[in-house]
Design brief:
CATH superfamily of the largest domain: FAD/NAD(P)-binding domain
CATH topology of the largest domain: FAD/NAD(P)-binding domain
Order of helices and strands: EHEEHEHEHEEHEEEEHEEEEHEEEH
Number of domains: 2
Helix content: 25-40%
Distance between the termini: 45 Å
Shape: globular
CATH architecture of the largest domain: 3-Layer(bba) Sandwich
Bound molecules: flavin-adenine dinucleotide
Largest sheet: 8 strands, mixed
CATH class of the largest domain: Alpha Beta
């Protein structure tokens, strides 16, 4: 069986779904293909954080767009995505990081973000149970927040369905051929012909790119996460502790506390196995920061992938193969980046020119600088 589309999106995570939503809105008949179910990759494994506190104008600008898009979704989809401006509190326990916050805040304010450098006492007034031992200061943005990834995906699915987009799920792309158009072969033998193709397969993007001779600098790593049972509200913002043995966690609107830490050394590869070491370590780190959490029972833990690039920023661009695009390498930010990135990427796919400066995410950049707020 062969089906013909204007565009095909490989991967039904936040990036593929947000792209397909925008492509459909532009009037392109679109196919969304996934080797498993919608959200089965990293998107369904993330901890739902959305922040605008980044260190470059492009990332800050795109996150302003994303926050605005997240805030419109309830009206657009007709149901809640549990979006809340619950804030992000980034904590500095050393002078070096405090200075990084200071210069970032200057740029963020210039870009119109409601952010300020606050004292440990002010941090304590925002999170009364916070252990401020050793805390020198914090960067706080009350307009950062959270949303429920599965509701966002459900909303995009609803909108793509309304525009008669098609889904091919549990059906990996096993081959890509480029003639005048692209011809994608799916595992069950279906052939998808499309004029434009987006590689948005998260951690698997590099492996799929190889099918058309690309070697994209994308490096998956395992990241583990944990969630507690529901407890009364004790934490409003996402708390980000940047110490070497730090962690980050927030309380969901539904009461559970959800969080991660960045393993050191990193754990390379596409891995979703979870470890007892993480569970014990994470519990200690969370309780050190908010001692009251000692009373909260952990419900479960799991793992997913960050897809890294050499400089920690995504790759969002057309590849050297005409009409083949890539949006991957989202590190720990793909959920929050997705709506903003895909809005601009789809404009580029349709009009063949960028409506914003995304050179920082270009495939041909030097990869020499680093995002300072991982
Ligand atoms: C523990 C953890 C916590 C995180 N917390 C946050 C957070 O708070 N905020 C945030 O913004 N980000 C967070 N992230 C990062 C975020 O989850 C990712 O950046 C984002 O989900 C990437 O989305 P994606 O669409 O690129 O990839 P994915 O969601 O992984 O989607 C890729 C899809 O491609 C499909 N696929 C693979 N191979 C094929 C094939 N051959 N054919 C067809 N389909 C294929 C997969 O099945 C998958 O569904 C976190 C990640 C982890 C692991």
């Amino acid at each position: 069986m062969k089906k013909t589309y204007d565009s095909a999106v490989i991967g039904a995570g936040i990036i593929g779904m947000a792209a397909a939503y925008n492509l459909s809105r532009e009037g392109l008949k679109t196919a969304v293909i996934d080797k498993s179910y919608i959200g089965s990759g990293s998107t369904g494994r993330c901890i739902s954080g959305i922040r605008q506190q980044f260190s470059t104008a492009a990332s800050i600008g795109l996150m302003k767009d994303s926050v605005s898009l997240f805030s419109q979704m309830e009206d657009e989809f007709g149901f809640s995505i549990d979006f809340s401006k619950s804030g992000y509190l980034l904590m500095a326990h050393d002078e070096g990081l405090l200075n990084v916050f200071k210069s970032n805040i200057e740029l963020q304010k210039k870009e119109g973000i409601n952010v300020s450098l606050i004292s440990p006492e002010e941090a304590l007034s925002i999170v009364p149970g916070l252990n401020t031992d050793g805390l020198l200061g914090a960067a706080y943005c009350p307009d950062d927040g959270q949303a429920y990834p599965f509701s966002v995906l459900k909303g995009y699915k609803k909108k793509i369905d309304e525009k008669s987009g098609d889904f091919y799920l549990h059906n990996p792309v096993s081959g890509i051929e480029k003639k005048e158009n692209f011809l994608l072969t799916l595992a069950n033998g279906t052939l998808i012909e499309a004029n434009k193709v987006l590689l948005s397969a998260g951690a698997w993007t590099r492996e799929i790119g190889k099918k058309v001779g690309l070697d994209l600098p994308l490096y998956p790593e395992r990241h583990e996460a944990v969630i507690t049972e529901r407890i009364p509200k004790i934490i409003e913002p996402m708390l980000v502790d940047y110490r070497k043995d730090g962690c980050y966690f927030q309380q969901l609107l539904t009461g559970q506390v959800i969080g991660c830490y960045t393993p050191d050394p990193n754990v390379p590869g596409i891995r979703t196995d979870s470890s007892c070491e993480f569970l014990l370590e994470m519990a200690q780190r969370m309780v050190r920061l908010v001692p009251e959490l000692e009373k909260a029972a952990i419900l479960r833990h799991w793992a997913g992938c960050y897809t890294m690039t050499p400089d920690g920023s995504p790759i969002v661009d057309q590849t050297e193969v005409e009409n083949l695009y890539v949006a991957s390498g989202m590190s720990g930010h793909g959920f929050m980046f997705g709506p903003g990135i895909c809005k601009h990427l789809v404009t580029y796919m349709v009009e063949n020119k960028w409506d914003v400066d995304f050179s920082e995410f270009s495939i041909s950049r030097s990869f020499g600088s680093k995002e300072s707020l991982k």
